[in-house]
Amino acid sequence: MKALSWPSPPPAFAVGQAAVWRLPLAWLGGLWLAILLIHHRDAAAMADIWWNSSTYGHCLFVLPIAGWLVWQRAPEIAAIVPRAWWPGLLIVAAGAGGWLLGQAAGVGIARHLGLVIMLQGAVVACLGPAVTRGLLFPLCYLWFLVPAGDVLVPPLQTITARMCMALLWLTGVPARIEGVFITIPNGYYEVAEACSGVKFLVAMIAYGALVANVCFRRAGRRMAFMAGAVAMPILANGVRAFGTIYVGHLTDGEVAGSFDHVVYGWFFFAFVLAATMALSWRFFDRGPYDRWLDAHALQPMPPLPERPARAAWIGGAVLALVLAPVGWSAAVAGQAAAVPSDIALPAVPGWTRVAEPRRHWWRPRFDGADARAIGHYRDGAGRMVDLAIVTYAAQAEGREIVGYGQGAVDPEGDWAWTDDSPAPPGGRAFRISAPGPVVREVATFYRVGDVVTGSEARVKLETLRARLLGGPQSAVAILVSAEQPGGRKSARPAIDAFLRALGPIETLADRAAGR
Fold it and tell me: Least buried of 62, 111, 153, 347, by fewest C-beta within 10 Å?
């Protein structure tokens, strides 16, 4: 039996390797510590999401996995002479710029991604191109530290609901769909956010990337495996949701719920993982003792000895790039002015303020708002409309006027988005549904700076502009909503009539913000 050992480093690198690594690693360790201290709030926010959100629990394993990947490559990497490399500053600058844009627009994912890119850029700047190429996959794997995936929830809900309907049709179960609500003769089901399968999809993507690198050498096989790793959880989640409804069709909703919790909680991800690996096993083409890289190919000739002064100015430049956007953001944020603590609801011609009627309870969700108010109005024809106004003096982490969980639909409540409807001028309109079913239409307007819009993307852009270049930092959300009357009649005529009587949205918004 042949003994296996790590390859010996080339003779040119065999002497004094430990000494040449001391200074670069010292600079890298110091810069990582400084970056994490400067951005400790974002680092803590990411860690809090990993620990408390089941969707991103897999992120807790990313750093240990990245460390293991580096350890696997360590014998070959040790044969490379590190050298500070100024183009790495461009990566740090990109991360710092991304962080600034995320801070200005109130987009947490952009700040978190910017933080990770700054850490990656520090590695490139301190250790140089040869080491970077050798550690390219472990460095890129750090992107999975960023808790990203909430944006996939609505499309995954829709895909799952459509798959359920197709499978119900194939099995002969009569069903009707409205948005993400599915009705069968003996039950009413919602493809909720927790049923979208996003938590297993994002975890499977991270796992698939690891397997693709560790178990495959050929690019074509890696891409095929990743395609399967994405498709399998989506398809399996559709089948799981259909199975829950089908069990409910054969029994009752209580049995279906128990079935769903057992399958979803204990067996689903294990089954998808095992099935994906079983189908791919015979195509693995990386041997257990294959070398990860060739140090001599990455660095055929040793570079000139590193000068401490050169490493120092590159390290100092990294630190300056990290600090610059923080200082700029703090200077602009100081321009924010307070908003009134109370919002006076307007008198609307032809409409009378009334006590809240006994209907299905609805409140929009805006975490961190400085002030909010909701009023209920009735006109002479008996039509009922709700008006909600929310103000922010300035937006920050946990205080964004648009974002996941913010707006007309509280993810922890009974209401769920159904579909969009024709937008009113300067706003956005959509229908939401609650068990019953109860249908409500909502028209939403945002006032940021001098712009009134219903587009969340436009809100982010205007927020970014104000926080980068200065100007009014306040933001206002105005929601006009009404429940659908009996039968299939629309609530939209009541909303449109109320908006006409209400007058310009920008006037109401500026008054609420004290402008």
Answer: 347
